[in-house]
Every structure is written in structure tokens, then in C-alpha cells.
Amino acid sequence: DEHMLAGVTIVDPRTTWIDPTVEIEPDVTIQPFEILRGATRVATGAQIGANTVAIDAHIGTNATIGPFCYLRPGTVLGDSSKAGTFVEIKNSRIGDRTKVPHLSYIGDAEIGDDTNVGAGAITANFPHKPGQPKGRTTIGSNVRTGIHNGFVAPLEVGDGAWIAAGSVITKDVPADALGIARPRQENKEGYAARQRDN
Q1: Which long-range contacts (CB under 8 A, 24 or more apart) does 121-125 make?
Q2: Of 5, 27, 56, 161, which has the fewest beta carbons less than 10 angstroms from its beta carbon?
Q3: Catalytic residue (one of 58, 102, 128, 148)
Q4: In whole angstroms, how far apart are CA 69 and each of 12, 84, 104?
């Protein structure tokens, strides 16, 4: 009730859970089935889609989140940024006007301003070696990633770079370069028909 009286639009208060520690500025719209917990802060003009969970996250002015988005502790979304459908973000900063539109996991990463992250991006941050900390991925500003990209930390993608679809990036990509890391396609003519005939 306090949030709505202060200018927050909560579409269905009965399905919205907001911890008393959460800060929400006016002109925010919250769709049904939300969970906002801990030290989460939501800035003016943000739009939070249905079925979103945010824990200890900072959501910038006019940011768009969800539906079906999970913002874990340490997430910072810049102004006018987007964390879209089936996106999970943890311990990462997403720059101003940067979009992570759908079907991605971004963990332990820094992504600059005006970058577009294609569908199915994953930052692989776990070292699989006892005692070693998780690696960080740094993706610069104005970067365009393709669909189904993996980023194996630690690594850095420079400003203005492009990443080819289906690439698993394991080395730094310089600014304004095209990073490609995938095998070349080979077609074996008639192979499927021969298998069916056996």
C-alpha cells in the first residue's frame, strides 16, 4: 500500500511480494507474481514483467525486466537497460541501454553501455579447480554478440567487437574485431538416407 500511495503501479498486489527493505521510486510498474527481496532498489520508470524475482539487485531508471527473469545478488542494471524473458543475472553490471533480451545466463560479468547480447549467451565463470575464485567476463560497449555464445572466463571482449553465432569464446577479443570460435560446417550428402536404408 505504501508503494502504491507513493506512485508505484502494482498490477496485482495479491500476487506481489515485496520485502520491507526494498526501495522503489515513483512511476515504476510491477506486473503480477513478483518477488522483490533484500536490498533491491528500483529506480523511476522501471518496468518489471510478470514472474520476476529480484534479490539485492539495483535496477536503473527506465530499465525493463522480464517476464520470467531472475536477478540474483550483485546485479546492477543500468538506465534504460533490459533483462528479458528467461534471463538470469548474478553479480554483474549491465550498462546503460544494454540489452540481454532472452534465454541467457550472465554471471560475474561487466557489460558496457549500448551492447546487445544475443539469445542463449552464457558466461562460464566456474574454474573447476578447488580454491580458485570464479573468473570474470568483461564485455565492452557497443558489442554485438551472436546467438548461442559461451564466454569462458576470465576474458575480455573489447568495445565495438562482434561475436559470431555459435562461438565459444576462450580468448580475449580486441576492440572492433570479429570473434569466431566454431568448427566449419560439413555436409555429408546422402548420409541420412543411407542410415535409414540399413
Answers
A1: 121/145, 121/148, 121/149, 121/150, 121/151, 122/149, 122/150, 122/151, 123/92, 123/150, 123/151, 123/153, 124/150, 124/151, 124/152, 124/153, 125/153
A2: 5
A3: 102
A4: 18, 6, 10
Average pLDDT in the chain: 96
Tens of pLDDT, residue by residue over 26-52, are 999 999 999 999 999 999 999 999 999
What is the C-alpha to C-alpha distance for residues 137 and 154, in angstroms, rounded to an integer? 5
**pLDDT tens string 93-111:** 999 999 999 999 999 999 9
| SS3 at position 73 | coil
Confidence of residue 131 (pLDDT cuts 50, 70, 90): confident
The Cα angle at residue 39 between residues 36 and 42, in degrees rounded to 5: 60
Distance between CA atoms of 198 and 144, rounded to whole angstroms? 45
pLDDT tens, position by position, 52-69: 999 999 999 999 999 999
148 is catalytic: no
Q: Return d(Cα 74, Cα 95) in angstroms, integer.
A: 14
Q: How many CB atoms lie within 10 A of CB 78?
A: 23
